[in-house]
Amino acid sequence: MFCSVVILSPPYALLTYALPQDLPLCLWMVGGRVVVPLGQSWRVGILTDFMDSCAGDFEAKTLCWPVDHKPLFTKAYLDFIANLSAHQMDSPGRILGRVLPQGIRELPIFTTCSGQVLTLPELASPDQRQKYVDVWMAGEMSTVRRAGAQDRFFSLAIEPPWSLRGNAILQQAVLKHLDQHGTSSMAMLRKGLGTGVRSALQALMDKGLVQEVESRIAIPVSEVPVSPLQLSAEQSGAVDQFTALLDSGQAHTGLLFGITSSGKTAVYLELARRCLALGRHVFLLAPEVAIALKLHEDTHAGLQNTAIYLYHGYLSPTQRQRIFMDLAQADKPCVVVGTRSSLFLPVEPGLIILDEEHDASFKQDEGLIYQAKDVAYGRIVASQGLMLMGSATPDVKVFHGTQKGAIHLASLEQRVGGGEIPEISLVDLRVHPQEYGPFATSVGQAVVQAVGAGEQVIILHNRRGYAPVLYCQACAEPIKCPHCQISLTLHKGRGILLCHYCGFTIPFPGPCPTCQAQTFVPLGSGTERLEEFLSSELPQGTGVLRLDRDIARRAGAMQEVLDSFARGQAQVLVGTQMLSKGHHFPGVTLVVVVDGDLGLNLPDYRATERCFQLLVQVAGRAGRGDKPGKVLIQTRNPGHYCWQYIQNNDYTGFFTQEIALRQAMHYPPFVKLGLIRLSWPVHVDYERSLAEIGAKICALAQELGIQVLGPAPAPLSILRGRRRFQCLLKAGTWPAIRALGVAMKKNLHNKQPVRMSVDLDPVDML
672-760: what CATH class? Predict the structure, then answer.
C-alpha cells in the first residue's frame, strides 16, 4: 500500500510513500504525523490518505516511523486545509508550515520509558526496528520536543534612559535590541548580537534592568467568580435567536450589532455556555491581544469549571505546542480565547465568535495572507456550527450581507445599566486654532475642567512617537529612512529616530545624515509629545498615562497601564487606537480626538469607513458610569459627510450613504477585489520587467473578464529597500481572480529579483 504525505518544511510538497511491509498497518493513521526520508535528510509530514497503487513510474520510498499514537488532525481539519489551499492559491504544506507551532513541524526525539533515546536510522532499519513495535504500541515510547533557547524570553524591566558604563557595549546592545523589538527570546538575541549575549543578559538582570518572563505578554486571570448576569430582554432575544441556529445542525453566520456598552460580551458568554452544554467547542476571538486578554479574564470569571485556553502569537513555542497537543487530545468541550491564529487549532468548533469583527487586524498581510473571517467561515462549514460576528460598527460588507439575508442579524440598541450615548461635538481647527499645545483653547479647557472635577479623560491620537517629522533647518530636508524614503519618527524618550515600516533607527540627538548640522525642528506631534505636554500643563499630581506600541513592548506594561487607569490612579490616558475598543472605564467622562482627519483621505476605498469605526468606538469609552459623557473631535474638514453620522451615532445612515457610493464606484461588496503586489530592489533596472509583467497581467485579465487598474506605483512606493508597484483587479467572481493569480505565480516562479503576491480582498491598499 501507499500513502500521501504533506511535508511540513521546505519544499512543502505532497509526496507519495510506500507503507513498510515489515510494520503493522495499524501504526499508520490519516491525520497522524510521520517521519519520512527526503533526499539525504528526515522530515516530519502528515499522512493524508491511503492508496492501493502508485501513479507514475518511480520507486516510492517507505515511511520511517509514526510520531503520534493518535491522529493529531481530523479528516474535517484536513479537508478545511485543502479548501483553504485552493482559496489561497498555495500548497497545503506551505499553509501548515506557516500556521502550526514550531515543535509540531520539527523532528522529535524518540525515547522509551527506560530513558533510552532512539535514533532515526534505528527506527528506519528493518533489521533493528522490529523490537520497538511492541514498545510503541504499548505506549511505552514517546516523543520529546528538541529543547531550544527560543523558549527563554527577556524583557526590559525599566524604560530608558539606563545608567551603564561606557565600555559595557554588549549590555547596551542588548538593551537597545529589547527597546526596539520588545520582549525577545534567547534565540532572537543570539541571532542579532552573537553568542556572548548570555553573560550580558545575566549582568543586566543582576542590575535590575532586564527581566526573564514566561511569555511575551502578561496573562491576567480573575479568580473571583461572577454570578450569572441578568440578561436584558434584548440580550435574551439575541441569545435565543442564535441558540436556535446553533441547534439547527447546519452551518450559519450571524451578526450581533450592538452599540458600545450594550453588553455583547454577556451574550457571547451565555451562547458559549449553551454550546458547551451541547458538547461542542467554542472559539472566542479578538483582533488584538489586549482585547483577547480582557475576554480571557471575563470568560474565566463567567464560565466556572470550564477548560479555557488562551492562544496568541506572544506565547513561547513550547506554550503554543503544549496548547496545540492538549487540544488535539481533548475529550471534553472547551473554550479557546485568542487572536486570529487560534483558528488553526485542532478542535472542531461548534461556535466561533469574532468580537470587533470590523477590525483590520483580523486580516494577516504577511507570510500566509488570510482574512480570519474567511478562515472561520471555512471551519464552521466543515463542522456545521455557528459563526457569530459582533461589533458596534460592523464591516460594511458584513452589514450588507444582513440586508441581503445571507447573515442573521440581532441588534442591541440600549446600553447596559441605562447609560446614555455621549454627546459628540466637532471643533473646527480652521476657526479655533491649536493654541493650547495640540488642542484648541476650548478643548484644552474641557480637559482641565474634567481633571479638576476628579473625572477621567481619554485622548486619542493615532500617531505614536514624539514627532512624525524631524526637519533640518540647515538643509531644509526632513530626515528620512534610507530604505523606505519615509520620514523617520522622533522617539524622544528612547533617544532614537525610527522608521515605523522597516524598523531602521539612528540615535538622537545626532548630526543630520545629509549635511551634518544639528539644527532641528520637530514637526507635528505624537502620543509621546502629548504625554509630555499634558504632564507639564495639567495641575501637579495629575496622573498621565500613555498606551501605544512603544509602551506595550515591555512585557506586562500594557496591562499595568490599563489596570492603573481602571483603578483611578491616573486621570488622563493618552494613546493610539489600541485604547479605542474593548475597554470599560466607568470614570471616563471626556474623550478627545486630537486629529479626526488622520486617515480620512488615504488612497483606500475603506478610508471613510475606518474613520467612522475608529471614532465611534473611541467615543463609546465615554459616559459608561453614572455621569454623562462628552466627546470632542478636532477636524479641519467639518464638511465631510461622515461627521453627521458620527455625531448622531447613526451607523445605519452611514451605511446607506456608503453602500450607495460603493455601488456607483464598483467597489466591494458589488465586485470582488484583488491586489497584485510587485517589487524590485531599488538598485535594479525594473522598467522592462515591469512592462512585460504588466502586459501579461492585462492579457490574462482580458481573457478572464477582469478589469485591471495598473500596474502603478504603490502609495508607499519604496519600502524596505524595494521599489513597489501594484495592480488592482476587479471581477465578478473569485475564481477569475484566483485563476489569474495562479497563472502569474507560475509565470514568475523563481524569476529573480521580482517578488509578487496576490491579496484577495485587500485591507491594506498602501
Answer: alpha beta
Among residues 118, 98, 102, which one has the least CA distance to residue 110? 118
Return d(Cα 242, Cα 323) in angstroms, integer. Answer: 29
- For the domain spanning 247-417, the CATH number is 3.40.50.300
Task: Check residue 149 and give its pLDDT.
Answer: 45
Q: Which residue has the cell 454577556?
A: 266
Backbone angles phi, psi at 754, to 5 degrees: -75, 140
Architecture field, domain 419-465+531-661:
3-Layer(aba) Sandwich (3.40)
Give the pLDDT confidence score for residue 318 in this predicted structure.
80
Tens of pLDDT, residues 318-357: 888 889 999 998 889 999 999 999 999 999 999 999 999 9
Closest Cα to residue 717, out of 686, 752, 688? 686
Q: Which three cell numbers stand for residue 594?
A: 486630537
The stretch 176-203 carries a mean pLDDT of: 82
Distance (Å, rounded) from C-alpha 370 to C-alpha 264? 26
* Mean pLDDT calculated for residue range 554-570: 84
How do residues 383-430 score in pLDDT, each as one tens digit?
999 999 999 999 999 999 999 999 999 999 988 876 788 999 999 999
Q: Please tell us whether the domain made up of 2-144 is placed in CATH 3.40.190.10.
A: no
CA distance readout (Å), 534 to 17, 147, 436: 67, 48, 10
**CB proximity list for 146: less than 8 A, separation 6 or greater:** 103, 106, 107, 108, 109
User: Distance between CA atoms of 98 and 96, rounded to whole angstroms?
Assistant: 5
N-terminal to C-terminal alpha carbon distance within the chain: 51
**Per-residue DSSP letter, 605:** T
**Cα 664 from Cα 331, distance rounded (Å):** 52
* Rounded (10°) CA dihedral 546, 549, 554, 557: 40
pLDDT, one tens digit per residue, over 287-296 is 988 889 889 9
Task: Decide if domain 149-213 falls under CATH 1.10.10.
Answer: yes
C-alpha cell at 428: 473646527
Same fold, 2-144 and 672-760: no
The strand ranges marked E within 227-381 are: 252-258, 281-285, 307-311, 334-338, 349-355, 363-364, 370-371
pLDDT at 151: 65
Written as nine digits, the cell of 585 is 472605564
Cβ count near 11 (within 10 Å): 12
Positive or negative: CA dihedral 600, 602, 608, 610: negative
217, 187 contact by CB (below 8 A): no
Q: What is the reported pTM?
A: 0.89
Domain boundaries, the chain: 2-144, 149-213, 247-417, 419-465+531-661, 467-524, 672-760
Classified as helix, coil or strand, 413 is coil
pLDDT (tens digit per residue) in 439-452: 999 999 999 999 99
